[in-house]
Design a protein that fits this description.
Layout: H1 4-17, H2 25-54, E1 69-79, E2 82-93, E3 98-100, H3 102-107, H4 117-129, H5 134-143, H6 149-173, H7 177-185, E4 195-208, H8 214-219, E5 225-237, E6 241-243, E7 249-251, E8 255-259, H9 263-276, E9 284-289, H10 293-302, E10 307-310, H11 312-327, H12 332-347, H13 351-364, H14 371-387, H15 393-399, H16 406-419, H17 431-442
Parallel strand pairs: 4-9, 9-10
Antiparallel strand pairs: 1-2, 2-3, 4-5, 5-8, 6-7
Helix pairs in contact: 4-5, 4-6, 6-9, 6-17, 7-9, 11-12, 11-14, 12-13, 13-14
The chain binds zinc ion.
Zinc ion binds next to loops.
């Protein structure tokens, strides 16, 4: 019987023989990794072969026994320790009418891809973290593995498609009372009197759908690229907001939603996320956003009993713009006019109504302003009137609630940094998958794709 000490002794001798022990520690670590790699590969190969041989011949889809079973078909998989070869059986499921390889499914292998689950995971994680090209180099440095950029992209895309399927399942659950109950059950137990905050926004991405058809499309008078909305939301509890030592606000745990699909799909995704974050337990639900009409329609449709709040910063921007129109941009007069109005919003109960009253008074002084200024006044009165019930900022402060939607704005810029690199186009079909993968990762549900990835043992 071999004891642990013997293996260590053997590796030590190998290292000595190769002269890899008189370097700095980082080099020793890398050399040790290299020297033991073949041993680990052989162990993995043997274990894989045994697992494949022990697998029953049931259809992975329906569970029925396979009819015609063929034995000993060979397959090679790229593992974290190099290529691993094994044999397994496959058969025909008369019910599903397909050939299947039950051992492959049990081992977590994809039909066509040659990567082991560990490699799949490395590709997916690294593609999310680093731009293409950089990821390749970093993987080589960290693991000693050589993976091409195209392998990494392909694997990440494949995992993204799995993430999309999971997301679609969640969306479907929102459509029945039973499904809603399933999602709500996944929420942690909320503290008493919890406030759930939902912030919503959208950003733009440049997209290209018709690769290689640029000239033809231009001839036909169609632009090959266009801008597309990415609807985005974040969900968190008020008691999960904290202040860092630096004084900067931070949120300890929160959910994300991001999609380029239509608003209906976004609505279902957001509802699913909110349910899983405790929507049905929260005492207060608060939706925050800017002035975009679709946000408030969605909020009213989906979160019927929620309070709504217009982002304070946007409201103030509107008043600054109006001050510029009326008294000249950047003038002392403009500032003198706008300051008290800003203060009313911050400090008065129903401050928005006082602001509207003041604008109404200005509008009655017809001779004071020209036609464009009159138009601007009318526009801002309409804006404020539309949102006046969403503007109780004094109350928000008293409740410790945010007055602004800063959390969603930082969320959007995080997504943009990752997905909106200069000159990079999106293809409509593929990159929604990466968006889904990124969002699943942010939401702390990586283990749904790689169930054993959270093992610490
Ligand atoms: Zn079947």
């Amino acid at each position: 019987m071999i004891v642990e000490g013997d293996i260590a002794e053997w590796i030590y001798t190998q290292m000595k023989t190769q002269g890899t022990t008189d370097q700095d520690m980082g080099s020793m670590e890398k050399a040790l990794d290299r020297v033991t790699r073949e041993v680990r590969r052989r162990v993995l190969e043997r274990l894989t072969q045994e697992a494949a041989a022990g697998e029953e011949f049931g259809c992975p889809t329906c569970g029925r026994m396979l009819n015609v079973v063929h034995h000993h078909q060979e397959r090679t998989v790229e593992s974290a320790f190099g290529p691993v070869r094994f044999e397994r059986s496959y058969g025909w499921c008369a019910h599903c009418r397909h050939y299947c390889f039950p051992a492959d499914v049990a081992l977590g292998l994809h039909e066509r891809a040659t990567s082991s689950p560990r490699i799949q995971e490395i590709c997916a994680l690294m593609t999310l973290q680093a731009p293409a090209g950089q990821a390749e180099e970093d993987v080589q440095r960290l693991t000693g593995l050589t993976l091409s950029a195209s392998t990494m992209q392909r694997e990440a895309r494949r995992q993204g498609e799995r993430a999309l399927k999971l997301r679609q399942k969640q969306e479907q659950l929102t459509e029945t009372p039973d499904g809603v109950a399933v999602l709500a059950d996944r929420a942690p137990r909320l503290p008493q009197h919890s406030t759930l905050i939902i912030e919503i926004d959208a950003w733009n991405i440049r997209e290209r759908d018709h690769w290689g058809q640029t000239k033809a499309r231009r001839k036909a008078g169609q632009e090959p690229e266009r801008w597309h909305w990415v609807y985005t939301a974040t969900v968190f509890r008020l008691d999960q907001c904290a202040t860092k030592q630096s004084g900067r606000p931070t949120i300890t745990d929160r959910g994300y939603v991001a999609t380029r699909q239509n608003l209906e799909s976004f609505k279902r995704q957001l509802y699913a996320e909110a349910l899983q974050r405790g929507l049905l337990q929260a005492e207060t639900v608060l939706v925050l956003g800017d002035g975009a009409a679709w946000i408030w329609k969605l909020a009213t449709d989906t979160f019927k009993n929620a309070d709504q709040r217009l982002d304070l910063y946007h409201a103030k921007e509107h008043l600054w713009a109006l001050a510029g129109e009326l008294y000249g941009k950047g003038t002392v007069e403009a500032e003198a006019w706008v300051r008290p109005h800003l203060r009313w919003l911050d400090q008065r109960n129903d401050g928005a109504r006082d602001v509207i009253r003041s604008l109404d008074d200005l509008q009655r002084a017809l001779n004071a302003f020209d036609q464009n200024q009159q138009k601007a006044l009318a526009r801002e009165i309409a804006y404020l009137t539309e949102h006046k019930d969403r503007m109780d900022y004094k109350y928000a402060k008293k409740q410790g609630q945010p007055g602004g939607s800063g959390a969603i704005e930082s969320t959007c810029s995080q997504y943009q940094r990752r997905f909106k690199r200069t000159g990079q186009f999106w293809s409509l079909t593929g990159d929604e998958a990466l968006l889904a993968l990124d969002t699943l990762h942010r939401n702390g549900r990586w283990n749904l794709l790689f169930p054993r990835s959270d093992d610490r043992s």
